[in-house]
Amino acid sequence: MEVSPEHISAFHNVKKHPKITEYITRFDTETTKVNSIAIIIGLLTGFVIGVYDQTLQYSNTFLGMQQGSPLHEFPNYYVLFVPALGGLLVGIISHFLMKKKYGVDGLIETVTLRGARLNLKDVFLEIFTSIITISSGGALGKEAPGILAGAGTGAFLGKILKSPERQLQILLGCGAAGGIAAAFNAPLAGVVFVVEVIYGELETRTFIPIVISSVFATLVSSTLFGVKPIEIPSYEMVSPYKELGLYLVLGLLAGFISTLLIRTLYHTKDIFSEIPLHPVFKPALGGLAVGAIGLFYPRVLGMGYDVITDALNNQLTFKLLLILLFLKILAFSLSLGSGGSGGTIVPSLFTGAMLGGAFWTIANLFFPGIVAEQGAYAMVGMGAVFAGTARAPLTAILILFEITRDYNMILPLMFACVLSNVMSNALYPESIFTEGLRRRGFKIRKGREVDIMSSMLVKDAMITYVQTVSEEKSVETLTALMQVSRHVGFPVLDSKGKLSGIVTLSDLRSKVKSGDVDKKVKDIATRRLEVAYPDETLDAVLKRFASKQIGRLPVVDREDKTKLLGLITRSDIVNAYNKKVVEKVRVHAEDTY
């Protein structure tokens, strides 16, 4: 059919009609655009999570390390060394191909402080290394990589659309919500997780697109790929008034176990950071230790969905429940603390199921006839320990509620989750996510930085071109260098170009006598160095300046403290702070007008 000039003219006249123009203008808004993009993100995230879940299942089957596999058919060295080989591969990929590992804490940092800019290559590699870690026996969960996959999907779409920073933050939240919603078939929990953990507060303009993305992601993953969470039977309270006292005790115990899990994880990270071993081999060492545990208790290997199901169905003895409770915490800490990739939610659920099951045994011994089934306590324990570790009680309640679709246990579940959150917060002020941020000097509360200095890194303020002095130079040469450069301190390098100390004007004054100019720099240099790292915050370094009464710090590599990367001084920090303040004022002015 040929389009005549009259048709074209009529079309333009319709567009110019006041009513038509009004409708077009009404729907052509920023909110409509974001909600439309949220639909696309939800669909893509559901597909990505489905592919991720299928890939993980195939790799688990291939390696035969998941619960239910005929491990007895393999020789002992197989169970011992497969986690180590998986760790070695993860170490190689992480060290040589990745610049940054995210996880949920890294995602919080990115959304809050880094303009919601993700390195998509690192995101993909972290998801890939999580598959390797989990399928080779690492005691981690699949949900954090799923959250990261969803956030990466949102970031990818935002990059294509060239979205501004604020819109990109919303798109990342849409993807993250879709990731956890698709993984647990729990759209409402996905929404609340992002609001409670990543954003820290609820805003109307972010809530609607996150809900949309979460719903569509769940539809795609469940209908197309059949992604299913843990199957939990229905339970009922036998004696509601009397049992609430028992759930109170369970909630408090869950808070204690949550704190133990967080402390064990970060203590393990500290141990591995001090081990004099190349970073490539640390995940392999952690995998070897996990494999050694798996030799005797293979149920701790992998995610452990089947073990959780056994606890829910009263198929584990009291002794085994306690053993698996503490060994899972240890295996989880070794897997993640050594450098493996994976999530923390499923290990928290696993630990909670073991705790609840063991607690039921004791409760039933002292109060026979008034307690519900063991699975009821295991289920409530799952939610309570997750609430304590993540400091996300509402998310924990909703995940378990959406999995069970059962209202009968909602009261004890809510009671235990809230008490666990209160208890763990009293024992340890940081969650399993924010503790990692705190150790890097960040103080993020309610999705915002508490202090400007806590959001600025050493690498953004340090001097990379550093004037150094050889330790073999004479004091006379050092004095001349100070006079020419007008610097009062220099990093000292040995014959191999490695950092061996620092020499300052105060060293000259206190350690060199008048006329003793032939003495070498190495004789007067300070060897016990205070150093800074490029990923530390300026707030942490400024406190070090004050406590040690020094004015400069060499910046070194965390893995090799003799590798000089730069130098940072008090004036560098002041200049960086001033620039940040000016930038914030300018941005605020642009937003206002």
Automatic annotation (TrEMBL):
Amino-acid biosynthesis recorded as keyword: yes
An individual GO BP term: methionine biosynthetic process
Keywords: Amino-acid biosynthesis, CBS domain, Chloride, Chloride channel, Ion channel, Ion transport, Membrane, Methionine biosynthesis, Transmembrane, Transmembrane helix, Transport
Protein name: Putative voltage-gated ClC-type chloride channel ClcB
The organism's place on the tree of life at top rank: Archaea
SMART domains: CBS (SM00116)
Organism: Methanosarcina barkeri 227
Bilayer disposition of the protein: Multi-pass membrane protein
Cellular component aspect of the GO annotation: chloride channel complex
